[in-house]
Amino acid sequence: MDNLLFALNVIVPIFVLLLVGSIARHLDWIKITTLNDLNRFIFKLPLPLMLFFNIYNMDRDTQFTNDSIKLVLLIIGVFTGIAVFGSFILNRTTKLDSSQKGVLVQAWFRGNTIIFGLPLATSLYGENGLTIVSIIIITAIASSNVIAVILLELYRGENIKAKQLTISVIKNPLLIAAFLGFIFYLINISIPSIILTPLMTLGKTATPLAFIVLGGTLELSKLGKNFKLIIVGSLGRLVGTPLLLVGIGWAIGLRGNYIGSIIAAMATPVAVVSYTMSREMGGDGELAGQIVVVSTFLSVFTLFLWIFFAKTYGIL
Amino acid sequence: MNNFVFALNIIFPIFILLMIGYLVSHIGWMSKKSLKNLNGFIFRLLLPLMLFINIYSMDKASVVSDEAIKTIAAIYLTLICIASVMALILNRTTDLKNSQKGVIIQAWFRGNTIIYGLPVVLSIYGQSSLDKVNLVIISIVPLINVLAVIVLQLYRGKSLNFLAMLLSIIKNPLIIGTALGFAFFYLNIKIPAIILKPITDLSKTATPMAFIVLGGTLELSKIGKNLNLIIFSCIGRLIVTPLIALLVLLAFGVEGVYLGTAVSCLAAPSAVGSFTMASEMDGDADLASLIVVISTVVSVVSIFFWVLVLKTLNLL
Q1: Integer Cα distance of A242 and A209 in angstroms
Q2: pTM (global) more than 0.80
Q3: Mutate to test the interface with A, among B22, B27, B29, B199 (most CBs of A within 10 A)
Q4: Phi and psi of B174, rounded to 5°?
Q5: Which one of 3.30.365.10, 1.20.1530.20, 1.10.10.60, 2.120.10.30 gives the CATH number of domain A2-312?
Q6: How far is A13 from chain B (nearest CA, A)?
Q7: Distance (Å) from the C-alpha of residue B202 to the closest C-alpha of chain A?
């Protein structure tokens, strides 16, 4: 019961923001063209800033044990595997549009790590038990962003050459931000607070505004049309990917808190930014938005089951 | 010298946001039309939410001392008188447009209390003083917002009868935000955390987004045409109003940390919200935005001067 309540505590705030966006749109406080422009702005600036600061502010005291290195490789490996094999299977067995395939595969590996994973892990392990979870979260954020950029760029539909593809990937705001974040972190460049403060403030607008845009542009009446894809995208995210991570993690010798932390941080619904990004990169934005909303809703039940399962087997 | 550096520390972040707004608009990430529409959204939703949250989350335990009440009374009296007298003078002696008069009067009484006044107070008196003067600072915000709504509405040009005017004031989003804030505060209505959190997150996007919009729509080329009005407004904002307030406060027998707090808050440059509001309420938005920017620049010098005055008066 507690687990169910907890899941509700995380998703209700999200639905409040979606609702506010929807109301603002229907009262005509904000126009659809403005929401489109705002989405581009979020994609170009607040979102990259958020990613940059996630990496830049990484904990410097983290000790890398054998197991945590395994964990990092596991996440990168599984995400890459899902992207490669997922695309391969969709290309071979379905007649979906390129714009849909990219969105679907993205949904499988790109979870809402910060909004869901972090609070869930905190409630399970407490503020001091977050070392493993932080490793997972930062690895997942960095790798899922990079892989998503490449994936969506590949599915953009235009038949482009490798060189052009590379250029457009490198020019992506999120990749630039991730790259700069690592550079600043590794070289230990400290940013003066007079520049840090406004940029961080702006980075923090990314998530609430992205939900407002999604809420304002979402058309629930169109859920039916994409029903199968939405379900496949959501369940892949909420059940498939965490199962893969836990299974392979177990196989390579991870146990206890490592497995528990994977569940806490990785069994989360699809990230709102996958909607923001799909729209800006030629993906099926509508489908991406629907998967975000439906997977968020379904996560109440799947998270409950995951935690129940983990407790039954003594992992949590 | 320290004061000088300190003032730079406050205004530099503001200029970074303005510059980003300018770039966003000129690179074409957001069209002018969208920025204008976004401004409406900030006015109708984000600013009222911010006001609401500010009032709602006031600390009930914060000290309601006689000294604090006296300070607040003196500030209210000063600002209301300044607004009324300025309206009288401008109506009698000038042939300015109504849209300009409203903006000038607003500039005289409406400073950037939270972003500018609060940090100044903290740097002078330290975090520990906040318990004492918190109430004073928080009380200024609703007053200047309500006053601004009244002034801008009165100068909106349509000749309305008293009742219609009253109605249009009551229907203003900022008034509604303020009223609801006080209602919730006094009736002790507790908002569940799952709703409070997302709307608080959303309210925090108000200020950065307002600066982005201001930066994106700023027309520096219009400085020349408006130069006299800008100078007049900035002198009022940065010098005359705090000076009158200082005298009234002294007459009321306010001293020490209370006096310093009041003067610091009232000597802050023009608030970004005054641009947001002027633009939505048929005021001269170009003039309002130039006043915000120029008073912010000049404040580096004027706040330095005010801290010196307070020191000389042995108030610090």
Answers
A1: 28
A2: yes
A3: B29
A4: -70, -35
A5: 1.20.1530.20
A6: 5
A7: 6
Cβ distance of B198 and A14 shorter than 8 Å: yes
Question: Is the pLDDT assigned to residue A117 strictly greater than 90?
Answer: no
Q: How far is Cα B52 from Cα B104, in angstroms, rounded to an integer?
A: 26
Is A3:A303 a contact under the CB 8 Å cutoff? yes
Interface size, chain A vs chain B, as Cβ–Cβ contacts under 8 Å: 104
Alpha-carbon distance of A293 to B237, in angstroms, equals 47
Looking up tokens 């760029």 gives A153
Q: Is the pLDDT of residue B315 over 70?
A: no
A198/B34 Cβ within 8 A = no
Burial-class residue A302 by CB neighbours within 10 Å (0-12, 13-18, 19+).
buried
Tell me which of A30, A44, A214, A300 to substitute to probe the interface with B (most B C-beta atoms closer than 10 Å).
Answer: A30
Token pair, residue B252, equals 């009321």
For residue B130 the two structure tokens come to: 């906040």
Residue A51, token pair as written in the block: 């990613």
Residue of B nearest to A192 (CA): B9
B41 and A13 within 8 Å at the Cβ level: the answer is no
Region at A157 (left for phi over 0; alpha for psi -120 to 50; beta for the rest): left
pLDDT digits (tens, 9 = 90+) for B113-149: 888 888 888 888 887 787 788 889 888 999 999 999 9
Residue B145: beta bridge partners?
Answer: none
**pLDDT score of A61 more than 80:** no
Topology of domain B2-312, CATH: Na+/H+ antiporter like fold (1.20.1530)
CB contact under 8 A, B194 and A194: no
Structure confidence by residue, pLDDT tens digits, B171-205: 899 899 999 999 999 999 999 999 999 999 999 99
For residue B111, the SS3 value is: strand
Which residue in the set A13, A204, A209 is minimally distant from B197, CB to CB? Answer: A13
| Inter-chain touch B37–A198, beta carbons under 8 Å | no
Q: Where are the domains of chain B?
A: 2-312
